[in-house]
Specification:
single chain, 472 residues, two-stranded antiparallel ribbon, 10 helices, 7 strands, flat
Length: 472
Amino acid sequence: MLNKVQLNLLKQHVGPFLFCFFVLMFLLLMQFLMLHVDKLVGKGLPILVVIELILSNLAYMVVLAVPMAMLVSTLIAFGKFSEWNELNAVRAAGINPIRLIMPVLTISAILFVGTAYFSNYILPEANHKARSLFIDIRMAKPGFDLEENTFYEGIDGYTFLVKNIDTDSDTLREITIFQEPVEERYRAFIRADKGVLQSEGEQTLSLYLNNGSILRSIPGERRSEETMERTDFTRYRLSFDLSELAFSRTNPEDRSRTGRTMTAEAMKAVTDSVRREVNNEFEKFTERTEQPETIPFKVDRSSSVYRRSVTFENEELQPFDTSFKAANLLDHPQEQISVINLAVNSLNRYRADYESYKTNISWRETRIDEFWVEIHKKLSIPFACMLFVLIGAPIGILTRNGNLGVAALISAVILTLYFMAIIQGEKLADKGVISPFAGMWAINFTYLVIGFFLTLHVCSSFRITNLWGNND
């Protein structure tokens, strides 16, 4: 049962935690929009699609924001508790500060379980939907968005160049249009003094041109018979089908999944399958390169090649010394040369088989490492909820300052080192330099040791200098 002091300390966490959580979510959202705004602007996307894309990407922000908010709120709550001398009163009452940390640690353990579940089951689906939306958006062509003195090729078969655009009335001035030949339409060069854009529905756009000319290229039976036709007009209409420019949705389930769009169970099944492929490749390699214990070898001494190689100027050639012991056992030079050539050819075939085997295994091993990195990440980052309590509580007690600015500064240092280690660990693990476990958990164990010693420091008379100090 919690006492009043423990309940009060937990209540002091709620406000800072919620505040920091929503502030961090806002900052992560702004970062996302700044990185991807160029992919969304000029696509003519429905507002609901943009909202769905943002909501789908909020999932990964939650996994990052929860541990970060837990660190800041812990620093603030325990900093204020120590600043107001409540910690001294608790110690005077004979209560160990570890009893104050345990309820917060229990809540962080609950957050760890919840965030890990969210990271494993909800986040992959959100990532898959967001990835599918990004692909659909990338495949959508830009909208009909003309700019002054800039070539525009957003509509197939046409290139536009406009000198002046009146955005208030959709009036274009000094227009040049290059028309490519398509089906029954000839290649043409169109110029007009003025034009007006008018929408003829959601999928059709008309451009009414005034006072201009059309120069058409009319092909003959032979290329040399091509003729040019010039037509002047006072009013001319061009219609454009915008249906191909519209955004279209595809079913996310029709797209393949990556490590970040799969649960840990699904990734383990994939790694088991890839591991079986590795074993099969090894068995095939050993079968291809396996040699019998003895190789039958016989030289046809009646052949002209042999006779020329073993005799020279009526003198029989003698065996020569080589660095190969097996060749030195033979008493004819042709036999020695043949054996050496046979060995060299066998080694060349073995080398080719080995390089092929090495290439096939390498990308499979890399794929396994990438999947295991994602599996460990689903637990290592949520585990930071508990980790940051073990670090934040003693640091807050030692700083004796519950100011938001101080907590934010300390958190920035801790979080920067943490996520730098996570990012670098992921890169090294993906390349196979270190194991996926070490890449994702090394910083956690480092912080865990630091948090353990800091907690001992504030909860007992233990000092780290006692490990090597003199005890008289």
